[in-house]
Design a protein that fits this description.
CATH class of the largest domain: Alpha Beta
CATH superfamily of the largest domain: Pseudouridine synthase I, catalytic domain, C-terminal subdomain
Number of domains: 2
Oligomer: single chain
Strand content: 25-35%
Number of strands: 11
Shape: globular
């Protein structure tokens, strides 16, 4: 069936993308020729919209970290006509196979992918299987059969609320606050011996999720206690929380916006069996 063209005038666009982070040195452009998500995406965009544009992202991800629903804002120098369906397909074909362009939508001029967001949600995949399954090695962290969900949940409850996460964040060189509001933490059974730990917060500081999961993983296998995790969090001492979970188990899976943008970063991949969920009242 031939494509039915439907052009609209737009100056700002919102892109929802997914990517396999193992192929990249992180989301953001870097010096040198290191492959990045931003570099690949902007190279494709320049082919479609020319050179006069800039992009912003809802949440930068580090080397090896994946995304299932990342939101990128595209600001153009002037309003132009677009067939958004055609733009999405073109971007999808011009970017490498490790990037998928899920949606392209027109956005009001005041929309900002980062500053309009009210929460982000990350998922971390953990394997408790006896053996480290080869095809899962770059997708999850293998903790082995000593993994226990209950002590993990007991520890996770203590990070709900607006707290200083200095123990679990790299210090901001500009001196910015390390206070963040964790609104929800959940654990799901994805398959036999495969678990998904999800954390939703208004924002995350650098390496916060990997630091939290690194310590929580020790709690789950009995090397640390839930009380020790709570004490480390309260101490606000980076030396107590430097264990980093590997990047390949981490996924940005959702970005929340207020109406009318609330579905831009939504991801519905149900089918997980929820074991527990703790939500900030």
């Amino acid at each position: 069936m031939p494509h039915a063209y439907h052009e609209i005038e737009a100056r700002n666009l919102a892109l929802t993308i997914a990517y396999d982070g193992s192929a990249f040195a992180g989301y953001a452009r870097q010096r040198g020729d290191l492959p990045t998500v931003q570099g690949s995406l902007e190279e494709a965009l320049s082919t479609i919209v020319g050179e006069r544009f800039r992009t912003v992202v809802a949440g930068r991800t580090d080397r090896g970290v994946h995304a299932l629903a990342q939101v990128v804002g595209l600001f153009l120098d002037e309003e132009r006509p677009f067939d958004l369906s055609k733009v999405r397909k073109s971007l999808d074909s011009l970017t490498p196979s490790s990037i998928s362009v899920l949606a392209v939508r027109a956005a009001p001029e005041e929309f900002h992918a980062r500053f309009s967001a009210v929460w982000r949600r990350y998922r971390y995949l953990i394997s408790s299987r006896e053996a480290d399954v080869p095809h899962l090695r770059r997708l999850c962290w293998h903790l082995g059969p000593d993994f226990r969900a209950d002590p993990l949940g007991e520890a996770a409850r203590s990070m709900l609320g607006e707290l200083d996460f200095s123990t679990f964040c790299r210090r901001d060189p500009a001196g910015g606050s390390l206070r963040r509001r964790v609104e929800e933490v959940s654990l799901y059974s994805v398959a036999t011996g495969l678990w998904a730990l999800e954390i939703r917060a208004n924002a995350f500081c650098h390496q916060m999720v990997r630091s939290l999961v690194g310590y929580l993983g020790l709690v789950a296998v009995g090397d640390k206690s839930a009380a020790a995790f709570a004490e480390a969090l309260a101490a606000r001492d980076r030396a107590l929380g430097v264990t980093l979970a590997p990047p390949h188990g981490l996924y940005l899976v959702g970005v929340g916006y207020k109406e009318p943008y609330q579905d831009l970063g939504a991801l519905d991949d149900g089918g997980f069996r929820e074991l527990w969920r703790f939500t900030l009242a």
